[in-house]
Amino acid sequence: MISMPHTLTTPRLALREPGPADAEAIFAFANDPEVARYMTWARHVDLDDSHDFLDDVAAGWSSGEEYCWLIEHETLGAIGTVACVFSEQGAEIGYVLARDAWGQGLGLEAARAVFDAARSLDDIYRIWASCDPDNRASMRILEQLGMVCEGRLRRWSERPNADDADGTPRDVFMYAWVR
């Protein structure tokens, strides 16, 4: 079991373990088709979806294998989530940001906080993330974290909210940092 901090702070953000009271804030961005477009999870269509997500988050924190933080900005409020999932191979990170937080460097700031926390663990030799080939903004974040594109994984994962979603897996680019 790996232990991660319940809160992380950056110059502009506070990252914290979300709870049931955060369901409406999460629904506000997880329901947005543009925000959910490249995600591996289906867009939230009602508040129950956000509550189910929060149940999964709580289980992940309890297991010590999967951590998800709510990203809060002092003036914008809850603007997204960033997660880190541990396995024998290392750690996988992922993030999602509300549309009104795009283009301000907030995704990089949040991802860097979690990336640095995972990288500081002595037993972590690899941190990776997959990225849809059409998601250029996410590619830039991963590259700015110091990750390298290792290649294209053909038909790797479904993106149920993509414009061409038909239930078949899409290609992804695999990015990684290794110690």
UniProtKB/TrEMBL annotation:
Domain N-acetyltransferase: 13-179
Ranges in a coiled coil: none
Pfam families: Acetyltransf_3
Record-given protein name: N-acetyltransferase GCN5
Organism: Salinisphaera dokdonensis CL-ES53
Taxonomic lineage from the root: Bacteria, Pseudomonadati, Pseudomonadota, Gammaproteobacteria, Salinisphaerales
